[in-house]
């Protein structure tokens, strides 16, 4: 599994498609589960039908809307997801083997702050803006634990390069000795993709919050962006903690894809069991429980890393 | 409620905001106040769109099918879109100043289709300021927040039509960020509703499960809310409440076991113990359990006619509980009271 190679830039097209498809897979899975819980069959085509419906609608604007910033915020979510995917090793291939790949990922996830805030600010609507406020409130809670959770695999691998982190798990997957960092990371993936229990910014009590004013292609981009972020986040969970493409018999990419879809499915199922967290409910558990826990985890990893030389 | 049931059968989803809606389905004939609000909501629906009004439950299926056909008809949509461009200079013009929104309450007005209309948007109507205003919208005022910092204040009306909101209630809020600094509650007349007569046990089951499902939706317990709605729909369809006793009891014990839900609702909107009200001393969690318990005992044949204090008392209590709370908590608090006109009980039975 060592020897992750950087492929020609033209493969970025495939990476974009794959990110979109992974997002669609998540959306389809969610729709099917939702349909079953409503006592209906089907749901398989619901995301396709929704896409068709949204593409028929004209773009919508409101009086005094900050259209430029609104559109930027809306379009940013899927773009951020794709930019994250650029440094993600897909089996033994990666689009951009940056020496600071992990920092790149972190920078992209912080961009989500700006994107969601702009999407809330832009339409000049109180509900959307409160959605934006709420996201910042949540972000304040989850971001620090996320950063320290990211640090653990980097310390263990002694590198910020994604390829080195994957290679560092040849003997033992990081999840085995960094379970706390893994769990915190998965929670943060749900958070930066605005999924339960971190979906208060798009909550029903705000009429959809940051989604409240979005119609047509804007809404499509926001919804697609959420699903793509969740899918890419699952991919990073695999690369950082679950050995990347490591596995017997099958080629690396197949293992990577399988694990990613499993993580994605598990996250989607787990989130259904949870209620939404209001931002004021997140701070205490995030900073008083998750943050110290992940710091202890990091200390353990650091000691082990030093001991191994 | 029958509309909601029809939506579920069609696999359509209620929309949370007008922007997400294709169909505006108004249940019952709205009074003048509300009709104006509904027209503004209608203006906010993106094309293609369709609007319908249903008065009797028997008409729902036909009305929604007609809406679906209208949505799929490019010529009608094109002519409608053309008319829309002619009569408005700028998109959505005019009413952002006061707009507000959209839809649903179950007893009288509500929504339609593949999502449907509802919700609001807090238009900001900062009344009464005389500075130059961009596009006719006043700038935010300022005021001290809880920590004494000077922050922008927005005047945002919640209601009269919002998802999971009692029909006709308007809560005029002063918001700083997502915190409601002060609020004042009013009612719009929602339309000629039948005055309360004696409700039967099935109507009580339907009414209480409806209230509980709305509160659960707001609290984010989508699955529990869905189960509650199915119980409600079955009671509505079957004509008797006895069959819902079993599922309701199961649901009640399931609720009591749900640690996360209890944790998020405990202590929210606690009414002072000295308040001269039946809800004295309860919080949102207690009141949620109270709704389900009322439904359980009604299903067993034991129910009391609704005893409700005057709306003025409700308004004062709501304003008091809402002050200083985060908006999401305010929504939970409002949903935890039975604020529907007593007429809703008979409406439910229709």
Q: What would you note in describing this structure?
A:
Chain A has 309 residues and is an all-alpha fold. Chain A has one domain. Chain A contains 11 helices and 2 strands, in the order E-H-H-H-E-H-H-H-H-H-H-H-H. A two-stranded parallel ribbon of chain A has the order 1-2. Chain A is globular. Chain A starts with a strand and ends with a helix. The mean pLDDT of chain A is 87. Chain B is α+β, with helices and mostly antiparallel strands and 350 residues long. Chain B has 2 domains: 184 residues, no CATH class; 104 residues, no CATH class. Chain B contains 12 helices and 7 strands. In chain B, the strands form 2 sheets. Chain B has a 5-stranded antiparallel beta sheet with strand order 3-4-5-6-7. In chain B, strands 1-2 form a two-stranded parallel ribbon. In chain B, strand 5 and strand 6 form a beta hairpin. Chain B is globular, with a radius of gyration of 21 Å. The C terminus of chain B is likely disordered. At the A-B interface, helix 2, helix 5 and helix 11 of A face helix 5, helix 6, helix 8 and helix 11 of B.
Rg for CA atoms of chain A: 19 Å
Number of helices of chain A: 11
User: How many DSSP-defined strands of chain A?
Assistant: 2
Characterize the overall form of chain B: globular
Task: Describe the structure concisely for a colleague.
By secondary structure, chain A is mostly helical. In chain A, 68% of the residues lie in helices and 1% in strands. Chain B is 43% helix and 12% strand.
Question: What's the arrangement of secondary structure elements?
Answer:
The complex is a heterodimer of chains A (309) and B (350).
Chain A: E1 5-6, H1 12-37, H2 46-56, H3 67-85, E2 93-94, H4 101-121, H5 126-157, H6 162-167, H7 174-177, H8 179-192, H9 216-241, H10 252-272, H11 279-308
Parallel strand pairs in A: 1-2
Chain B: H1 2-10, E1 23-27, H2 32-44, E2 50-54, H3 60-72, H4 74-87, E3 141-144, E4 150-158, E5 169-176, E6 179-187, H5 201-219, H6 222-238, H7 245-257, H8 259-265, H9 284-299, H10 311-322, E7 325-326, H11 327-335, H12 343-349
Parallel strand pairs in B: 1-2
Antiparallel strand pairs in B: 3-4, 4-5, 5-6, 6-7
Helix pairs in contact in B: 5-6, 5-9, 5-11, 5-12, 6-7, 7-9
């Amino acid at each position: 599994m060592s020897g992750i190679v950087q492929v020609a830039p033209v493969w970025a097209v495939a990476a974009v498609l794959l990110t979109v498809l992974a997002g669609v897979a998540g959306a389809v899975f969610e729709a099917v589960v939702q349909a079953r819980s409503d006592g209906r069959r089907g749901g398989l085509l619901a995301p396709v039908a929704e896409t068709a419906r949204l593409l028929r609608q004209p773009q919508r604007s409101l009086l005094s809307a900050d259209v430029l910033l609104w559109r930027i915020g809306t379009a940013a979510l899927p773009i951020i997801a794709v930019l994250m995917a650029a440094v993600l090793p897909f089996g033994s291939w990666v689009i951009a083997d940056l020496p600071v790949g992990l920092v790149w990922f972190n920078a992209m996830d912080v961009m989500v702050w700006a994107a969601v805030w702009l999407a809330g600010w832009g339409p000049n609507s109180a509900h959307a803006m409160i959605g934006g406020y709420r996201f910042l409130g949540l972000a304040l809670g989850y971001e620090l634990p996320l950063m320290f959770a990211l640090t653990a695999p980097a310390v263990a691998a002694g590198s910020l390069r994604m390829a080195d982190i994957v290679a560092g798990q040849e003997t033992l997957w990081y999840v085995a000795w960094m379970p706390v960092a893994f769990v915190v990371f998965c929670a943060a993936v749900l958070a930066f993709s605005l999924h339960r229990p971190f979906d208060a910014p798009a909550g029903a009590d705000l009429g959809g919050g940051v989604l409240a004013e979005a119609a047509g292609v804007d809404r499509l981009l926001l919804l697609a962006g959420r699903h793509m972020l969740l899918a890419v986040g699952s991919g990073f969970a695999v690369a950082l903690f679950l050995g990347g493409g490591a596995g017997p018999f099958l080629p690396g990419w197949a293992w990577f894809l399988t694990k990613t879809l499993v993580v994605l499915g598990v996250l989607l199922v787990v989130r259904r069991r949870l209620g939404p967290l209001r931002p004021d409910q997140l701070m205490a558990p995030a900073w008083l429980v998750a943050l110290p826990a992940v710091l202890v985890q990091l200390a353990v990893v650091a000691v082990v890393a030093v001991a191994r030389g | 409620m029958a509309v909601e049931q029809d939506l579920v059968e069609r696999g359509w989803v209620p929309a949370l905001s007008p922007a997400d809606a294709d169909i505006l389905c108004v249940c019952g004939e709205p009074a003048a106040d509300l009709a104006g609000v509904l027209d503004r909501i209608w203006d906010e629906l993106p094309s293609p769109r369709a609007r319908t009004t249903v008065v009797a439950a028997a008409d729902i299926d036909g009305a929604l099918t007609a809406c679906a056909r209208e949505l799929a008809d490019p010529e009608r949509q094109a002519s409608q879109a053309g008319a829309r461009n002619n009569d408005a200079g700028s998109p959505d013009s005019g009413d952002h100043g006061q707009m507000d929104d959209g839809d649903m309450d179950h007893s009288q007005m509500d929504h339609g289709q593949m999502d449907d209309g509802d919700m609001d948007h807090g238009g900001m109507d900062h009344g009464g300021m005389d500075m130059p205003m961009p596009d006719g919208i006043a700038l935010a005022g300022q005021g001290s927040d809880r920590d004494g910092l000077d922050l922008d204040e927005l005047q945002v009306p919640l209601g009269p039509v919002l998802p999971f909101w009692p029909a006709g209630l308007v809560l005029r809020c002063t918001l700083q960020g997502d915190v409601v600094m002060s609020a004042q509650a009013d009612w719009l007349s929602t339309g000629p509703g039948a005055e309360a007569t004696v409700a039967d046990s099935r109507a009580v089951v339907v009414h209480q499960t409806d209230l509980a499902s709305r509160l659960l939706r707001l609290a984010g317990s989508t699955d529990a809310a869905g189960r509650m709605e199915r119980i409600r729909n079955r009671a509505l369809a079957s004509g008797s409440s006895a069959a819902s006793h079993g599922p309701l009891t199961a649901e009640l014990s399931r609720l009591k076991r749900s640690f996360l839900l209890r944790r998020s609702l405990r202590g929210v909107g606690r009414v002072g113990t000295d308040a001269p009200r039946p809800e004295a001393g309860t919080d949102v969690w207690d009141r949620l359990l109270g709704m389900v318990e009322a439904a359980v005992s009604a299903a067993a044949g034991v129910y009391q006619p609704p005893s409700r204090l005057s709306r003025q008392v409700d308004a004062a209590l709501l304003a008091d509980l809402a002050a200083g709370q985060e908006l999401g908590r305010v929504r939970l608090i409002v949903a935890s009271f039975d604020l529907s006109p007593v007429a809703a009980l008979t409406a439910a039975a229709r």
